[in-house]
Amino acid sequence: MQRQIEGGIEILKNGGVIAFPTDTVYGLGADAFNAGAVDRIYDIKGRPRDRRFPLLIADMESLAVLAGGFSSLACFLAARFWPGGLTMVLPAVASLPVHLSTGPGIAVRIPHHSVCLALIRGLGNPVIGTSANPSGHRPALTTAEVRQHFAGKVECIIDGGRCPGGTESTVVDVTGRSPVILREGIIPTHEIERAYGEYLEVDNEAHCHRC
């Protein structure tokens, strides 16, 4: 596995595209700051260019180059669900490349998977974290499913066994005063709502020690 990871890191550094396991489903990844590599993922997936990709990071410190603000609500949810299956839409920094965000927000997640985190840390940049399936198809949970879609179209498929999550991450917009669920995934809506209720009941600032 370590050799697969090291090979995947080199491919990412050289502008390639790989498929890899996460804590939710298999993902297609590239160096988020390599516009050409990101453009290839659009072509591989058949994804509309106006739908920006979520980004995977390894730690909270990495948010500094992506997000222009991290509210007490976002901090509370991060403390509760990161690392894990929550993707949060945060205010994007003004300097973010246009191929990553054409609007005011950027979708970010810290995954809970050792292979995924090793790839991000080895690259040293955020990694595109879109599901490894053609747009409109069911996400892949095994390398066999990834190969059915993308054999010969990506430089590497890292075999991490069957992904444990079984479904995609839950996407929540936290750019406002209350969370807006954009896609229910591995974290049920009621868990987000319960966390928000707890957030409203406590001293919000006391929960920002991780931010």
Strand order of the largest sheet: 6-3-5-4-9-10
Distance between the termini: 32 Å
What is the residue-averaged pLDDT? 93
Assigned CATH class: Alpha Beta
Molecular shape: globular
Describe this structure in words.
- The structure is a single chain.
- By secondary structure, the protein is of the alpha/beta class.
- It has a single domain, classed as DHBP synthase.
- 30% of the residues lie in helices and 16% in strands.
- The protein is built from six helices and ten strands.
- Strands 6-3-5-4-9-10 form a six-stranded mixed β-sheet. A four-stranded mixed β-sheet has the order 7-2-1-8.
- Strand 9 and strand 10 form a beta hairpin.
- The longest helix has 13 residues.
- 45% of the residues are buried.
- The model has no long low-confidence stretch (mean pLDDT 93).
Q: Could you outline the blueprint of secondary structure elements for this entry?
A:
Layout: H1 2-13, E1 18-20, E2 27-29, H2 35-45, E3 55-56, H3 72-81, E4 86-91, E5 105-109, H4 114-123, E6 127-128, E7 130-131, H5 143-150, E8 156-157, E9 170-173, E10 180-183, H6 189-201
Parallel strand pairs: 1-8, 3-5, 4-9
Antiparallel strand pairs: 1-2, 2-7, 3-6, 4-5, 9-10
